């Protein structure tokens, strides 16, 4: 008897991670994965099956509809996995606005609503729309589900979500939404399993990757986060600026004569670690560099992370745990140490050996705050929610 399979798509601004899961007794278990970087020429599929990884050059090129790329990619997956057993596809969608508070089946009205939110997440949302439409074209019989990064933060109060701008603007959607919700959802689940007492307390998690943010949890619920209306907000990132005085945008538009498109490109693609260092957006390259610009970019990164963690502790009214996750958070002891050194006044103290070894618990026995390194897995949340949607749709029929 065949085992049902489920596919997940986790798009970034220029990449897409693909997960393949078996579904047994309502549980999704990863059996394979792939990744495509749309900036590479030729395109290359990184395909993993168990402990084996293949690098496959694709013949197709990137087009607006992605039909050819996705068709070829699914063909390669089919040479390693029985894709005839696919029952559903789950998508990470960065922005759900105020409409979507949890995972949903993608129908015509759902897709229209997701598309309407493209201006609020111009780097990521278009990728989701293209992937959804491509699957509709290639495998129209498959149920598709959407999981929203913003949904996890809907527990935040209006006080936290409001900007100090004319009140009517809040009612039209100009408010703080928060992102990386799927990652934080996974992290809080791991906390509940591994550190149940801490999971019931006041915790700040730092999702540090190419995109980066922090989130404040109280008893597992999102109370505040560094990202606001857009994925530009909060701490500096690989190429994104983080929090910025709105007057800078006005200055660039009015005094320097930049177009809106040029400002958008500068703030999304040419700022952050890349902009400050002038060397690279990759923190690993900056750590290996001896140039002062590289050091300053990393110091600014840690400085802003620590400052945001302290602000979030104020929202929580205390701090019992600090969690590092995502690529930088999980694998860069230097960054974690630089952040925690600035939080010593809050009672944060690292155990150097544990931190250098990327251990699960990296705080010292004397630390008043438990500091953890927890891997995240957004694709697992997407898969879990796609199964949830699938069962819900089956119950309706």
Q: For the CA atoms, what is the radius of gyration?
A: 21 Å
What characteristic shape results from the CA principal axes?
globular
Which percent range describes the beta-strand content?
A: 15-25%
First-last Cα distance:
24 Å
InterPro entries: Ac/propionate_kinase (IPR004372), Aliphatic_acid_kin_short-chain (IPR000890), Aliphatic_acid_kinase_CS (IPR023865), ATPase_NBD (IPR043129)
Site (Transition state stabilizer): 180, 240
Subcellular location: Cytoplasm
Enzyme class: transferase
Describe this structure in words.
The protein is α/β, with parallel strands linked by helices. Helix content is 40%, strand content 21%. The protein has 16 helices and 13 strands. The strands form two sheets. Strands 5-4-3-2-1-6-8-7 form an eight-stranded mixed sheet, with helices on both faces. It is globular, with a radius of gyration of 21 Å. The protein starts with a strand and ends with a helix.
